[in-house]
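Hello forum,

I keep getting stuck at the same step: I have a sequence, I want structure tokens, and every attempt I make locally crashes halfway through. Rather than fight my setup again tonight, could one of you with a working pipeline run this one for me? It's a single chain of 473 residues.
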Amino acid sequence: MRRLLAWLPLLVVACQNVGEPMAKHGAAPAVASVAPTTTAKASKAPAVSPILARPGSPTVELRAKVVVDAAYIVAQGGGNIVANNGGNVLLTGDARLISDKGSGVISDHGAGLIGNNAGSRRVLAAQELLPAAGMTVQVTSLRTGKPLTLGMDAAGQPVLTTTTDLQGEVKVYIPKEEQGNVLVQAAVPGSADKRLQYGLVTATATTTTALVDEDTAQVSALLRVAIAGRIGAQLTQDPARALCEVGNTDVFPPAIKAALQQSVSELHAAALQAGVKPGPAADALALAMGDTVLANLDLGAIMMTPEVYPGLPRAEPMFPAMVEVMRHVRDQAARQLAQDPNAFAAKPYIVEGNSCKPGTYVIAKATDLNAFIVQEYLAAARNGELPRVRAVIDDVGARRPEGVADDQAVRLSAAASALEAVLGIAFVTDQNGAKSTALAQIKAFDPAKFGSARPLPCWQPTADELKGCEGAP
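Reply #2:
Ran it on my machine without issues. Output:
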């Protein structure tokens, strides 16, 4: 919230009810092409029960497309690749039965590329992004954390989960009262591997097909844990320290600073009264509170501008900018992993991240590096996270990849500032009931209802990074 005042007139609109967020980003872009490896065609679509809108019940149609790192999934035995209408598609779950006896890549003449797992890996390049058929999909309310009804089946029964078709797409019908943003979740059936689970925060009101992929899923995770981390700091830390950790308020006029201080103090006092203490239960509460705020944010309205964040070459929407940053980091990480599967094992930042929780971070897939950045740094709500993120971006060569003019570290820093400003505005103004709802959630806090939460990061801010923070050691 370092630039909250400057963002105020630009971002109040972002806290209004969601209209058409991410309209420019939501349409699925062209998928990376794959050199033809088979002439076999999928003979039928996965067995997907048609989902129908419930008669007389107001609903909103939501379309989504799942595009994933097929090479990794095939390598883990989680899918097969076949040609479909001139392009390739990843088959997961029951959809795998379409291919010939479980072969990973098949030929209609019984020759050429017939293989399972290892054979497929030799054909697929690293990070082949393909539509994924047969993925299990559900839509979860960010307000309640519960799965939403997607419509009804032919027998008139409510449907809570469905699967993607041969284009990797689904069409569902969300209850109209669930306005704002929801969480679209997709997973490879039968797998407990978190790398094969994806979640996208998207608006129910969008008219474009929401894209669930490696990068949009990481940005969605970033939004959720970053907001939760900042709320969690206010719940469990001394208010003065929490204010400094979330952002330097000294640059604000007295009225704005007083409003921020009052908001943080109210949340902290309520948390003390409810018995909220640092730990997994508090983390889970902060995530639930953050999701409630996120449900009402118009993500497409959050803009980053040169006037607010010097160094940006132009104004641009926050969400697609963050997706591009994630894509550049993933691309560069993939190049290093292609040369050495253990390329990141001895990196100082990975070693530090594992120092207090051994084995937490293993970069086996290019997207894992973005997951590390999100979980270890951007979810921390600690002064000094952005310099550490920039160090990782520099290390993999993603600050200015070849042919890319924009500084990706500057874009990510600007996005983080924009998100902090929107969060500050939501609570200071009680936009859409952000603060009053949060206070009610704290009052209803029951530690027994919450399970485990993310492990705390191992790094600590330096003395210079905490300079000026009241209550700092």
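The mean pLDDT is 79. If your local run keeps crashing, start a new thread with the error log.
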